[in-house]
Amino acid sequence: MQMSSGGVGGGSRVMSPKQVLTAILVVFSALSFIKLLLLTSSSPSTARHRRGPAWNGTAAGDLLAPKEAALLRSVVAARAPCRLLVFGVSPQLVALAAVNAGEGAATAFVTDSAVDADSARRVLSAGRRGAGSSAASAAVYQVRYRDAAGEAWPLLRRARASPACRRPTGTVRKSGCHLALTTTLPRAVLDARWDVLVVDGPSGAGPGEPGRMGAIYTAAALARAAAGEGREAVDVAVHDVDRTVERWYAWEYLCEDNLAATKGRLWHFRVAAGGPPDVFCSIGPAQIL
């Protein structure tokens, strides 16, 4: 990259601040791309890389940090009572059902762990017997994710080339994009208009673990569908953005210009109506290759 060039009389031209910022973003994107390639070419995860059931000895690094949990609670509380969809199940996440209180509130959790699903249902059932009326409108869905985190880059490259993976114009349930969880999620989830979506699952802890590519894409598509109806902007939170897959897919489908707040490993996006009709982001993805 040439920082300056000779001119008339031997003068030099310094890069403008905008050019410097662009160069920095390109370099940072290239580094992230390299990390993504390393992840997708790594060997399958071993037992020490696996995330255990969230209710039974979750590693400290897999939990929401206090400042992350506080941000997430504030996002939900600001919209309550609302329609809240959470990819992932843990005590911290299930506690959001109590935050989303009030008439008309509805909360849904999606997990691929039978153990976590049963634990969450027991907690929510106890809430129904107590004073927590918000638990009465909470549901837990156990699903099976088909794509491993190690497939993130091939899936993203395929999605970039597929017209079906552009910004959806209709119901997400009818999406033909291979990233959309149309065969995984129940119709009750795909057809609902969500106000807040949280992605903290599936595991994505290693190349062989279920990845969050489909969860992030589907959350973005559901947010676009809801916001496109002239409703208030939709809030989407993604956890573990210190990991390459989560960060790259959040950039790709939730967009840097929608980033509203960050705390630690949690990014909070606000997705509003408007923008180009056939792409998720106003600013296109960095072209590395």
From TrEMBL:
The lineage of its organism: Eukaryota, Viridiplantae, Streptophyta, Embryophyta, Tracheophyta. This is Uncharacterized protein. One of its GO terms (biological process) is xylan biosynthetic process. GO terms for cellular component: Golgi membrane. It holds the Pfam family IRX15_IRX15L_GXM. The keyword Transmembrane applies. It is a single-pass membrane protein. Keywords: Membrane, Transmembrane, Transmembrane helix. It is found in: Golgi apparatus membrane. The chain crosses the membrane at residues 20-41.
